[in-house]
Design a protein that fits this description.
Four copies of one chain form a homotetramer.
Chain A (H helix, E strand, L loop, with lengths): L10 E3 L4 E3 L2 E2 H5 L6 H10 L5 H15 L5 H12 L4 H9 L9 H12 L4 H17 L17 H11 L6 H17 L7 H10 L5 H25 L3 H11 L5
Antiparallel strand pairs in A: 1-2, 2-3
């Protein structure tokens, strides 16, 4: 199990200084002119960000932060009730739900769009048709499209796409997302909304965020949302009630 | 196990709208004038924030985000190597390390300061002396003071305290932190730095953040730092090397 | 952060042999005469076990394995629904609920009993009375006693205590548990059952299991129970229904 | 998000009785004639087990329990050092490493074997050749075969296969595992060991354990091993040393 010796470029210390990558934490980053979102994304992506990119990431993080009483927050509240001395365990339990079925679909959408991005014109359209045909033949959901509640359109996606249109940078992912949406609508004969996860995937794709890291961005946003759920538990505890309600709702049957 | 019926004030939906508390997500929060930090802290604390408070939270989050190769990031990298298909599991593993020994000390510091805050003058000083005496008699570390590396002063704390001095709001926690530091220095006959965790606890105490929620803020900041560690693993994988190095360093002995 | 060089006594390998502590895995432990429970407890406690001890641990593990639809299994089922590709995440989420409020009380009970164990006769009784008085004055529950459902007696405890009576070894914890129960009944003027957690704590105390490790034994037992819950999800999925039921039961209120 | 009303068959209570499925816990399962392994596997699989099957599961669980200082136990020890008040968090962190790269390969191996099991004679052999060809063309490892240390043969697999040969039940998975091993040896022109994970997958396949549940069995076994690691930390703490060693081994480089 040999491996060449790895290094880390994230952080180093001296007696009286701390560095995040090549920046002096106190002098360069805590001077009041940089926000947490800018610093963390630059830290994760290892590059500086434009003003527009900072706005886009702020918008994505706000959008992905909160979804109400979902499996993720139900898990967090249940664990918190059992181990309130250990808040990080409740948050960790909730984050473990950022998997293939919900927020984690962002990666799958990004991988689909990545098939369209290098193509142009009729080639891109043919590939979009192939993607739709594949999913229809397997009778599976196309990640990034459709929402069980928001019809005809997810209001968050409209706002996110507007923001993408304002970008001075490349829009290959954004255009591919819209094209695929058109092909879907045509194929199904009805309009299917681009959902918020799909819009976030396209915006991040155009900023060169690797698909794996997109799920990480979702995890950060959800961690904030889950802290709000635990904070609400302090004032309006629901854990015991959830237990009771679920217990009553699922009867015993051999 | 009866409990009065709880409610939630965090999120609600209609067909074409999403609300975070009493705010329309798209119209009120995604209009480009609000950042993620402002929105998430307002969501967690259920109140609006001043410009100065937003700056303070940004500074705290940046400060707590990254600490290099610590037990938390070692755990995250080790889990990522074993289950790369499951990034949220690696982040969750790393967050489980936000416990009593490191970042979680923020709560203990806040609880100590809360003993001083309601007192004034000589009463406050006597209570500070009592706190020091208690810890010395139990030979335990006083949370919020001392750092294994940064001497004589933690550069982050100096910056954080400066920021606190600029506040127009109450400074009871901040003043208590400084007073307790003076009593510690006098008692031990040498200067012990206020560490970054102590400074963050005082700043948040003066903004009425409940001690339990302080640990939650630390968890959010760390989740961003851990995503940077996993992002670095994609380019410079270290998990297998960590395994090898640890295995070699800890020999078998019956 | 210096520390003397640690070692490990758990496992070593050669090309064609594996050792667990000083035992050859294949020749000594997989010869068909040793069960998993015996091997794992010997591995954890680093000592051989008597036949009676093996029976006691089997009984404890069976007793702690399953508790139906609790916060722990609700968390596991919720996470499984969101990330079915990642079964270990669902189990981990459920185990995070083994905290201070339920199974983790085993440690607190063991620590109470440890105050009685070194005493005899009237001294032990006086200390038991002191323990009851402390908890009554703080209006807190005495860990190991009482059950919200099983009255007058928890049927599992009766069986566990019978098993303890059959032991040829020391019974200081068992006798302390019964004495404390008598003092509680007298003080409250009514019978309060010794619960299963209390009985397990006493049986393990008499086998010299450290209190911290008792929680670990509970974690192992629960991991088996949680796998049964996930296995049931494969045939009778409940995660989406739990989401729906909880969402409907907790209305929005500002 | 509608779903037909689910039920649970795992556990029910009355005032003075507890049932696991259709068995009375105290009278039927805690009568001293049933061990934890038998009870938990019957609970998970929802069927009774033969004596031979109980022996096989005991052997599998012992085999998968312990692997020394691996990413899983390094994560658990690192988290334990940071949050010792929260043992379940350390175990959960370690279990999160039961993913695609190590123990979780058991599922992938079972799915490969499931392609051979329905076939016979030359058809089975042709499918085995197809499996080998697929993996060679993708230059990926065939799960269940090869071991970085144990050559020419993994001693655990030899013992596990012997046990499988003693079965009176079906051996379709076992025979498929051996056949695929022969085809691999022939294709590569050298002997590649059947590893312990492969042998466990085949034994469980022949007992009708669903592939998803196999990973669950591995999780239970690992939870026991991880408790032994934490128990060792109580006597020979290594967490701080691991931190130091890893920190020293991975230098900063921009």
């Amino acid at each position: 199990m040999k491996q060449s010796k790895p290094t880390t470029g994230l952080c180093r210390y001296t007696d009286d200084q701390v560095f995040y990558r090549d920046k002096n934490l106190v002098e360069d980053l805590l001077d009041g002119s940089h926000g947490f979102v800018e610093v963390m994304i630059a830290h994760i992506l290892n590059r500086d960000l434009t003003e527009h990119e900072i706005r886009v990431f702020n918008t994505i993080l706000i959008t992905m932060m909160e979804h109400g009483l979902t499996p993720s927050s139900i898990a967090a509240r249940s664990v918190y009730m059992s181990a309130p001395e250990n808040l990080q365990g409740a948050i960790a339990a909730g984050l473990l739900a950022v998997g293939s079925q919900f927020v984690g679909t962002i990666e799958n959408n990004a991988r689909l769009l990545a098939r369209l991005v290098p193509l142009e014109g009729a080639d891109r359209e043919r590939e979009a048709e192939a993607i739709v045909a594949e999913h229809r033949s397997r009778r599976t959901h196309i990640p990034g499209y459709g929402h069980h509640l928001h019809r005809p359109d997810d209001p968050r996606s409209i706002r996110l796409l507007e923001l993408g249109e304002e970008s001075q940078g490349p829009r290959h992912y954004l255009n591919s997302l819209k094209l695929l949406g058109e092909v879907i609508d045509r194929s199904f004969g009805r309009h299917m909304t681009i959902n918020a996860t799909g819009a976030c995937a396209a915006l991040m794709g155009d900023m060169d965020v690797p698909p794996e890291v997109m799920r990480g961005i979702a995890v950060i946003a959800r961690s904030a949302g889950l802290v709000a759920h635990i904070s609400e538990e302090l004032e309006r505890p629901s854990g015991r009630y959830i237990w009771e309600v679920v217990s009553d709702a699922i009867p015993f049957e051999v």
